[in-house]
Amino acid sequence: MTNKIKKILIANRGEIACRVIKTARRMGISTVAVYSDADKNALHVEMADEAVHLGPPAVNQSYLVMDKILAAIEATGADAVHPGYGFLSENPEFAKLLKKKGVSFIGPNPHAIVSMGDKITSKKLAQDAGVSCVPGHMGLIEDAEEAVKISTQIGYPVMIKASAGGGGKGMRIAWNDEEAREGFQSSKNEAKTSFGDDRIFIEKFVTQPRHIEIQVLGDKHGNCIYLGERECSIQRRNQKVIEEAPSPFLDEATRKAMGDEAVALAKAVDYDSAGTVEFIVDGDKNFYFLEMNTRLQVEHPVTELITGVDLVEQMIRSAQGEKLSMTQDDVVLNGWAIESRIYAEDPYRNFLPSIGRLKRYRPPAERVTETGAIIRNDTGVYEGGEISMFYDPMIAKLCTWGEDRGVALTAMKEALDNFELDGIGHNIPFLQAVYDHDRFERGDITTAFIAEEYPDGFIGAPENSGHTRKIAAICALLHDIRQHRAAQISGSLPNHARHIPDEWSVAVKSPTGEDRIYTADINGETGLRTIVMNDDSDKAALELEVGLNWRPGEETVKAFVDSKPFVMKARKIPCGFRVWHRGVTFDVQVRNPRAAELAVHMPIKVAADTSNLLLCPMPGVVVSILVEEGQEVQDGQALAVVEAMKMENTLRAESKCVVSKINAAAGDNLAVDEVIMEFSKDA
């Protein structure tokens, strides 16, 4: 017997709320959005048929308040709730309250949420079911000293995790007693803020693992299947950054073994919706159960792209009481899909959160490309919208599908090339660097990939000399176009400058700080231009054919160099352009030959010395100040904790010094580069 759903309230925000609305609309089901003060102009509010205001921006005063959600349900007559992910999605009390009200919960039954959503309970259940688990302490931990004792018994490194956690929140890796003590408290604080549940457990951290998860799908009639796996090994601070399906590591036998185990575990709790069983897999393809997420995963689009199954639709149909329309034999994995999480964070500043207005937001169009690849972009923002400090920094999930991994990867690189995003810091350059990395292209990845390849943080991708020459030629042409345009506008150029040379001196400052000097001789007036490039090496001049359709002011430059597409971002700076291409940043100066001769005599501006200051690295709230004025601190000592976008960040001393002045206190809201404390070197 089925109970047809007519109106869904989405108890969430951002891109997942928009995602649910799209499927509901296609199924002829009306939708209700909820929103906080910070989200009153959000995209999900605009897309929904109705919208209800919840309250202040803080989640514990809006999206996590069950009474307010229930009031919105009653006010709108919604007969079902989709919780998305995070917030109340794995809260069994919320599911029970809805059941009492006669409202369908589009997710698993409360028993499954209690059994599998709680990581401590799910570990015990998995062990009882004979599932291989990572060694750890499954009991609750009272305080930091007990956490240190348990960590020592298990053996470092250990993973400190929130029992009700997910999405990388409330998780820390500890390699020694001090990190275990600090990590326990930070995880506990984050867990309470993000989930309203501060219970913590500890398990052994398996080094060099792959993170591979199985998508399961069940109904209320005892049927359950798995829809392949997703590789989620590219992670930073336990937060997934890139996901792909299938995994480049698994063979069919391991895939089936993991899938069968995931289904057996789901059936043990009568699982009746979409869910994910997560494993870590070692180099010998041994796999260990990590946890089960009793909700829709952030990375579900890659599974949808390789199976053709709309997981949100299946969740709705299961909530209506329908039987699964497919069996395990019907599941066929077709092609390859990759997802890039586009975050509002600055990779050049240790991935610190970034907030502000999206001055430019123009993702690549969702479409089927000329090569047969598919581009999909799940998002909850728009150009002119705000990225606030109160929520997850997710901007979009850019996905590509291809007939094989190579096609999907090429499509992703090209899609990121064409993604226009400005006004905030974002991680697109980092994503481009990862995709161009030979280890990623080989599929040789683990959860330690980012730590191993960028141990000192991200400063940009390695320079490709062939690309550098193309960038120099294109910038010479951009400058030439600007000069000719100015010459045609009365008064834009003085009379003596109206003779525009055909030859330009191009100085390209690479990420290493070295200058590459080229002479670019441009031939032709319009259309396809021939540019002869000389440098100061003994190599012969290189002739490039460059064509582009560009107007001054446009930042995305789509060129053809020797008939092959070449896309870069270019922003005007004095005497040239700042260029971004595939994770590399260049400053390119374009001058006439005489101006180039004189430029070498110009003094170089020296940046101000801020080594005696602790500056707030991102907009956030001071959680605690850990030192006092006059205190001597050591290199690496924790000084303060700042919270932004639901993540705590510990700020540490860079050298031995004395705290001379403290300018901030717990609870203060700080802007970027606001001074938290000052130091003297008299230690």
Task: Count helical runs.
Answer: 17
- Gyration radius, in Å: 27 Å
Strand content: 25-35%
Number of domains: 6
Compute the number of strand runs: 40
Largest sheet: 9 strands, antiparallel
Average per-residue pLDDT, rounded, comes to 91
Q: Structural class given helices, strands, pairing? A: alpha+beta
Q: Tell me, what is the CATH class of the largest domain?
A: Alpha Beta
Q: Kindly, what is the distance between the CA atoms of the first and last residues, rounded to a whole number of angstroms? A: 76 Å
In spatial order, strands of the major sheet run: 14-13-10-11-12-15-23-21-20
Q: Globular, elongated, flat, extended or rod-shaped: what is the shape? A: globular
CATH superfamily of the largest domain: ATP-grasp fold, B domain
At CATH level 3, the topology of the largest domain is D-amino Acid Aminotransferase, Chain A, domain 1
pLDDT < 50 runs, ≥5 residues:
none
CATH architecture of the largest domain: 2-Layer Sandwich
Structural commentary:
There is one protein chain. The chain is α+β, with helices and mostly antiparallel strands. The protein folds into 6 domains: 7-106, Rossmann fold (3-Layer(aba) Sandwich); 107-134 and 212-334, D-amino Acid Aminotransferase, Chain A, domain 1 (2-Layer Sandwich); 135-204, ATP-grasp fold, A domain (Dna Ligase, domain 1); 338-452, D-amino Acid Aminotransferase, Chain A, domain 1, CATH 3.30.470.20; 465-599, Glycoprotein, Type 4 Pilin (2-Layer Sandwich); 613-680, OB fold (Dihydrolipoamide Acetyltransferase, E2P) (Beta Barrel), CATH 2.40.50.100. The protein contains 17 helices and 40 strands. Strands 14-13-10-11-12-15-23-21-20 form a 9-stranded antiparallel beta sheet. Helix 4 runs antiparallel to helix 5 (110-117) and helix 7 crosses helix 8 (177-195). The N and C termini lie far apart (76 Å). The model has no long low-confidence stretch (mean pLDDT 91).
